[in-house]
Amino acid sequence: MSKKTIDKREIGRIAVSAIILGFVFSFRQWGYGQIFELSTGLTNWLRLAILSAIILIIYQVVHKSVAKNYGCKSTFTIWGIKRFWFTKRAKIENLRIFGMKLKSIKIGIILPLLISLFSNGLLKFCAIGSSEISEIKLSRMKRPFKQVTDFEIAIIHFSGPLAVILVALLLNSFPGFSDLVKISYYIAIFAMLPLAGLDGTKIFFGSAPLYLFGITFIIFSTALLILANSLTALLFGLVAAVVLLLIFLFKYR
Q: φ, ψ for residue 31 (rounded to 5)?
């Protein structure tokens, strides 16, 4: 099996993530106006779950391809936390629920659902999953550094959000892809959040300049996608990202 092929466990995780995202994006589409229609809601949920799955697959395939280029393996995981506080005993594995031992709490499932429910679908929290990077020692034999560097880790993790925001910029020029565009930029933005376990944190600690460039480009591109066309969003997003990056490098050189 190719190293960039998504395995069965990842397919299951992506499927679960897509179902959650489909629910988040379809929350206010269960009928017309004040009329609730189960069939309409289920149809929209399924449709948006499939679109979410497409974007997540693109996200992870790019992750895997870039990771392979650096002699690493990328594995998609649902966002979870292993600690509920900062003390040594505050580990999830020390908790028991109905006698069951937990390894982590999958807040990538819990938070999107709760926020959608309590905000009546107005707020869309799309921090669902991330990727775990592991070295393939034989693949790094010819590289200057035997162990993957922090900057390489940052590049690998940034490749996913970058890929899906570029998908949004590309598809925005064509009619009929508005939902796919929306899902793409939501996933890109939330992936860049500097929260423990998400790609954003790994990019930030791997390379602060790359994180600044990436988050600026994605935010500006998303804002301009809504207000302008794709080319304008791409150009102004790049300009804003480069300007802030140069300011950062000049100030902290």
A: 140, -170
